[in-house]
Amino acid sequence: MIAENFSYAAPSSIQEAITMLHEYGEDAKILAGGHSLIPMMKLRFASPTHLIDINNIPGLSYIREEDGFLKIGAMTREVDVEDSELIKSKYHLFGDATKLIADPQVRNFGTLGGNLAHGDAANDHPAVMMSLGASVIITGNEGSREVSLDDFFHGFYTTAVEHGEILTEIKIPVAKGRFGSAYHKAERKVGDYATAGVAATLQFDESGVCNRVGLGLTNVSPTPMRVSRAEELLMGSRVSEQDIAAAAKMAAEDCSPSEDLRGNVDYKRHLVKVITKRMLTKALGRAK
Amino acid sequence: MIKCKTSKEIGGMGHSKKRKEDARFIQGKGNYVDDVKLPGMLYMDIVRSPYAYAKIKNIDATKALEIPGVIAVVTGKDLEKYNLHWMPTLMSDTQMVLPTDTVMYQAQEVAAVIATDRYIARDGKEAVMVDYEPMDPVMDPFEALNPDAPVLRSDKEGKTDNHIWNWKVGDKEKTEEIFSNADVVVKQQMHIPRIHVASIETCGCVASYDKVENHLTMYMTTQAPHAIRTVIALVAGHVGLTEEKIRVISPDIGGGFGGKVPVYPGYVIAIAVSFLTGAPIKWIEDRSENLQADSFARDYHITAEMAGTSDGKIQATRFKVLADHGYTDASANPSKFPTGLFSIGTGSYDYGAAYMEADAVYTNKPPGGVAYRCSFRVTEAVHAIERMTDMFARKVGKDPAQLRMENFIKKEDFPWASPTGWSYDSGDYHAGLQKAMDAIGYDDLRKEQLELRKEGKFLGIGISTFTEVVGAGPAQDFDILGIKMFDSAEIRVHPTGKAIARFGTKSQGQGHETTYAQIIAEELGIPMEHIQIEEGDTDTAPYGLGTYASRSTPTAGAAAAMAARKLRDKAKKIAAFLMEVSEEDLDWEPGKFFVKGAPEKSKTIQELIFAAYTNHPPGMEGGFEAVHYYDPPNLTFPSGAYICVAEVDAETCDIKVRRFVAIDDCGNIINPMIVQGQVHGGLTQGIAPAMYEELIYDKAGNILNGTFMDYLVPTAVESPSWETGHTITPAPHHPIGAKGVGESPTVGAPPAIVNAIVDAVSHLGIKHLEIPVTPFKLYKELKAVGYFNETA
Amino acid sequence: MAIDIKLKVNGTEHSATVEPRTLLVHLIRENLSMTGTHIGCDTSSCGACTVLIDGKSAKSCTILAVQANGKEITTVEGMATAEGLHPLQEGFHLNHALHCGFCTPGMMLRAVELLEKNPNPTEEEIRWGIAGNLCRCTGYNNIVKAIQWASAKMQDKELPSTEPEFV
Q: What ipTM was reported for this prediction?
């Protein structure tokens, strides 16, 4: 399996990369971790004429809390998230998710920015980030703009990143007080794309009332989705067993999976219900 | 403990000697076919059909030939000029090398691009323009038999349907009589789906034809180099490639499992192009080609029935098979056995009547019918009998272990004549199952299962007590294209007592370089470290039929022992001469002959070998060499008792194998470490079809999972930690009492796993589950019996 | 269109001129003639092509040769030193963790990084740690054992038995 030929450039700054994108036009593609793009090119499902490798651009890999946000550089590798003490101590759903993403070698290279910018509802970080209420920083010739993940995914492999722009940072409101999160996906074997996946985030005030909630779903809708109806139900509640059951039911009703080798619509909705229940319960437990 | 006759230094049978072949593999010095590089070598890539069934209207290679570095584009019309566009299959059917007018399955070879480098060949492949006229494919084997189905093999004169052959065995009338009078009959339709061996190394070759010498050297991934040489000579003899002009070299092979037995079109095209250009041609498949076009395994639709008494005595079985062969019957079976050894399907049980019948059909799927780590269709048969035994036990209300114990063939009844004509050599099925039950704690598990059910948790225990049939085979019954399935060994011992031995088999990971040396060490007393084993070069090795169907130890292993015994007889004569005693006065212990009653008077085997070159008796031939071609008097019948414990998540239907105990009986054991390793590997290739693997096609003939992203080969996470053990019932007719083991676990594991999963949910009304049993499939079945409606 | 690159492979500097689409695995196997690194799939699913890039295990069939420019690569040919075999090589041999040998180089190199990050992995951690490497022959039991053996050896701990538990 061999890709069609292309030209290759490895700019050393974002500005240089953006200039190249403009110069080469629509057939240019950004090469981040490459573990989605290169297999597609080898199978000749994708044949960009120019590859712009942003791996040599410094300053795009970091995980830090700053100004009330958890900020993650777009070129941060899955493995860095897995190993980060900050993440391990507070944001447990990342640990749940990364373990289930592809395999260790792929996680050594795959980036969080790439996982989002690929625009694939089968990827895991969209649901994770949506449940965390994340937004992304997109940088172009005109400077940077911030886009909520709720407005980021436009369709199959298309996102808010316009041609000539690069996703540079992910911004997540920091965890405060009693905060718990969890992620799980049903998969046919380890490293598979999700049959159905659920990311749950809960935060409570001192009186035990939920003041932050996020419920994101993987691979059960044409574009990554959050379950707003369930979030509204849980927000301001004490997240009882009944609330969780009701939220799980809403998640199952509101998703719109399609039938494929992984399962039919009925089975996927069923999984969404079961996993939502389990992840909300787990997040609740972690928020204690 | 396994008793050893030889010292650790000699390292004969029973010693867990570390493998001799490892040194090169752990240091990256293995020599696989893609590592072969020859001067002036060109690369071949293959244009493949996007359609399952289509007319080829035109092939336009103009654009491809314009690419610098593309040397040629070869089509069926080019091969037709040399009458090389069709080739025979091992089952005497016909298969296209390259089509001249019609493609019969998706991913079929359409044209070959030859270029100076593999990247350019790939570009060339993209640039070949083929104009197809698609037709509606026949994908369902049952529909293929409809009178109005299109006749796929219209190339065959007089062919009016898609039926290939009908085969039957057993006593139909007697079986029917038992069924009509039986207390209890259970019946189940089951599909053993199409799967793929998916060895991690794909197939490939380097064909190197020397125009000056009129000589072909063929490096290729083949499990049967000699048979391939003969096939090439039969196919290409008419253009001057006669058998002495062909050398097949099978280098290190990255896993075979049956998938490297057939001759694929790519090999033949590479030979043809090398023959025409005089340049060496390398062809290496990629994974998609491997999964989509190389031989499949299984794909049997079975209607299975079992009859018996209400107190649990099995009386008869009846199996009806529909075999989907794709567009040609390219099975790798012995010639007289269109369903391979499927007729072993009466299993380990003692009953008097069975009838089996099979029909094979053509469809628009890739050809094949290889084994997937199994002896010629035994897995299909074992799945049917072990599933039916469980269903029968459930129907008569008996514990499946108890019912098996009551129906086993007894140890003292061997050799046992099976109702389908086999003579089982030996076995002790009761001992094996008892050992497995003790190891896993069977009675406690049954109690735990009941406790867990009260809590709404599902635990299942599944048993498979199977009989394998391997070691083809006796020459009167077994041949491939007329060549009898004996096998060979040639031992050449050097004056200093070190040896090289050559074989007609070919290891693909089984460890022959170690185990064959141990057999010779056992018989001859030379340390196994000093015996070098060579296979895979038809110029140097004696003729043999190759390695598949667990046949190497039963045939070539026996040949090694027999050849070594010839040498030991010679050594005895030399010893008698040197010590001036008669042969009757000599006794042997591994490594030396000594005089009876005077053990201090002795000669070591090394001294005797040296004498064979320096001081041999008058009238005796000098040197120390022997060859043996071993024709086994019977097949061998390894067996096993496997117990699987499976947990099913009552909400998600996730399935987890909690424990799996495998007790194997493969007769005498040459190397326990290697036998255990074979069992481990075979078990993972057992859980694979039971829970993960299946080649899936849609109605339009598209393969839906033609890459490793969707064809789900188990990783270390899916594969449980296997618990293994053995019993030993030697093969009475085999020189070293060994039976073969490489495939038993792949044969025996799937029904144990399925029986466990069914057992876990049987109280909800589930009687049967089709493999692969996935959580999705289980969910649908549970929903169908109303389970999720109640819990919703 | 060809690009000049420099990289260090097993401690030796190499330079090469490659097309951008040249895969790292092909650079290693074809240009540098080190054939211990294998190709088993096209989709970064099987791990037979695993090498170390600056110490990180990587699937060299999914990485462009140009991306390795300036990097240090370790392949199976670089595992042994003048002192002898790497403990993982020894462990794989002694524990019968290979049959056909095709997945072995990638499996061992993946285990190098696994043990570097986690010197005392549990069986579960090993199994998840090699989840990107397919083996079709061994059933993984002995691979787990081999990695545990190497873990002990690398820390000068008492070595587990290498005898098969096959009774």
A: 0.98
Query: For B457, which DSSP code?
Result: -
Averaged pLDDT score across all residues of chain B = 96
**CA distances from residue B69 to A42, B66, B72, B206, B551 in whole angstroms, order as listed:** 20, 9, 9, 19, 45
Task: List pLDDT tens digits, range B474-527.
Answer: 988 999 888 999 999 999 999 999 999 999 999 999 999 999 999 999 999 999
- The residue range of the domain holding C146 is 87-154
- Is B194 known to be catalytic? no
CATH number assigned to the domain with residue range A7-53, chosen from the 4 options 3.30.43.10, 3.30.230.10, 3.90.76.10, 2.40.30.10: 3.30.43.10
pLDDT in tens, A149-198: 999 999 989 999 999 999 999 999 999 999 999 999 999 999 999 999 99
C-beta atoms surrounding B235 within 10 Å = 20
CA terminus-to-terminus distance, chain B: 54
Q: How confident is the model at residue B792 (pLDDT cuts 50, 70, 90)?
A: very low
Report domain extents, chain A: 7-53, 63-173, 178-286
pLDDT, position B791: 47
Residue B373 is among the residues annotated as catalytic for this protein: yes
Which class for B173: exposed (0-12), middle (13-18), buried (19 or more C-beta within 10 A)? exposed
Taking all residues of chain A, what is their mean pLDDT, rounded to a whole number?
Answer: 97
Which residue of A1, A190, A266 is in closest CB contact with B286? A1
d(C-alpha B451, C-alpha B444), whole Å: 11
Q: Specify the 3-state DSSP secondary structure of A156.
A: coil
Query: CA of B677: how far to CAs of A109, B511, B576, B725, B746, in Å?
Result: 34, 10, 43, 11, 13
C4-47 confidence digits (pLDDT tens): 999 999 999 999 999 999 999 999 999 999 999 999 998 999 99
**Within a domain: C159:** no
Q: Which CATH number fits domain A178-286: 3.30.390.50, 3.90.1150.10, 3.30.1780.10, 3.40.50.2000?
A: 3.30.390.50
d(CA A136, CA A148): 6
- Among the listed residues B95, B223, B292, B685, the single catalytic one is B223
Query: C43–A39: do the CB atoms touch at under 8 Å?
Result: yes
Alpha helices (H) in chain C, listed in sequence order? 24-26, 87-94, 104-117, 123-129, 141-154
- Asked whether residue C160 is domain-assigned, the answer is no
In this predicted model, what pLDDT tens digit does every residue of B561-614 receive, in sequence order?
999 999 999 999 999 999 999 999 999 999 999 999 999 999 999 999 999 999
Q: Do C19 and B119 touch (CB under 8 A)?
A: yes
A 10 A CB-CB count for B631 gives 16
| pLDDT (average), residues B16-45 | 98
Is the peptide bond between B473 and the residue preceding it cis, with omega within 30 degrees of 0?
Answer: yes
Residues B488, B628 contacting (CB under 8 angstroms)? yes
- pLDDT on residue B504: 94
B229 a catalytic residue: no
Q: How much is the average pLDDT of A134-143? A: 97
User: Is the distance from CB of C62 to CB of A38 less than 8 angstroms?
Assistant: yes
Report the CATH architecture of B22-30+487-630.
Answer: 2-Layer Sandwich (3.30)
CATH class entry, domain B33-136+203-284: alpha beta
Residue B163 neighbours by CB under 8 Å, 6+ apart? B145, B359, B360, B361
Closest residue to A186, CB basis, from B652, B714, B718: B652
The fraction of chain B above a pLDDT of 90, given in percent, is 96
Residue B130 tokens, joined: 């083929």
Residues of B in contact with C35 (CB under 8 A): 28, 31-32, 34-35
CB < 8 Å to A270, chain B: 779, 788
Crossing angle of helices B265-277 and B225-236, rounded to 10°: 60
Please say whether the dihedral angle defined by the alpha carbons of residues B406, B412, B413 and B415, taken in this order, is positive or negative: positive
Please list the residues that pair with B205 across neighbouring strands: B220, B283
